[in-house]
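Readers of this paper often ask what the protein records in our data store actually look like. Such a record has a labelled line for the sequence and another for the backbone structure tokens. Nothing more is needed to write down the fold, since each code stands for a local backbone conformation. The remainder of this section carries one protein's record, kept here as part of the documentation.
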Amino acid sequence: MDPVLRTQYKQAVFRFEPLPVGWPAEFAVITAYDPEGRVTDPADNEIADQVLAAELRGAGYCLHRIVGQSPDGTHQEPGWAVTVGLPGAIEFGRRFGQLAIFYIRQGRLTLVDCDDGAAEDLGRDLRSV
């Protein structure tokens, strides 16, 4: 992944309603927006988001809306907290052209490269801004 994009991913903050009671301690955050890191037409992003949600639900996963964004809020990408294991999360990320996904274990936020699977603990917990 491009070092500039990696830095941007590492700075991401998230907006979401509280996770449902009983939500697993391990889950992924996946988006279908802006594949390959390119700004994409909003209508195309929304369609890709709907397809991702339908595929995840069709595979039996629980979803919860979560929005990743730049710290100043100028760039936002709606995505899904999804109760899928890490290998499955990476595969969905790849299929939807994502450079990376986020993975959460016991509240800790990890950035995972969809190309090589390299994971980096971001040194902070997932929380809503």
User: Anything to note?
Assistant: The chain is about 25% helix and 35% strand. Residues 3-125 form one domain.
